[in-house]
Design goal:
The protein is of the alpha/beta class. Helices cover 43% and strands 21% of the residues. The chain starts with a strand and ends with a helix. It comes from Physcomitrium patens (Spreading-leaved earth moss).
């Protein structure tokens, strides 16, 4: 499994603290200063595995876009029901919804360092993140693996 970042010479860690960024809610009230890294890669590439190691060694909080969507879907809220209906119809959840769920999780956390796993998945996701938040990640961690290994890992999850 190969790891690469947008900035190969930069290392995230205690000896090289990332600059903080801040965000505001829709009313303009400041939420908090925080640092974040996007973690992307194909299904079964090892995103969650690597995130767990980074959490353990560097104190980041791991936010999985998929987990946030599933939790909201099961919450019984209006947004959760909308997500459930979209998925039932085979449609994608709007990027704005995912961005707002990520920002909500960040604002509710006591941590100030986040790994955002599985987001953005495409250029449209990134454009919506930029438009809604105006924030840039410190870097993007892109995790790759062979097609065979990723397929093996995904199939092992389902018991196939």
């Amino acid at each position: 499994m190969a790891l690469s970042t947008a900035s190969e010479s930069r290392r995230a860690g205690p000896q090289d603290p990332m600059p903080s960024v801040s965000t505001h809610d829709s009313s303009g009230a400041k939420l908090k200063n925080f640092k974040f890294v996007f973690v992307t890669g194909g299904p079964g590439s090892g995103k969650s595995t690597q995130c767990a190691k980074i959490v353990e060694n560097f104190g980041f909080e791991h936010l999985s876009a998929g987990d946030l969507l599933r939790a909201e879907q099961n919450s019984g809220t209006e947004i959760g029901n909308m997500i459930k209906d979209l998925i039932k119809e085979g449609k994608l959840v709007p990027s704005e919804v995912t961005v707002k769920l990520i920002l909500k999780a960040i604002s509710e956390s006591t941590n100030d360092k986040f790994l955002i796993d599985g987001f953005p998945r495409n250029e449209e996701n990134r454009e919506v993140w930029d438009r809604v938040t105006g924030l840039k990640p410190e870097f993007i961690l892109f995790i790759t693996g062979s097609e065979e290994e990723m397929e093996r890992r995904v199939l092992s999850r389902t018991g196939s």
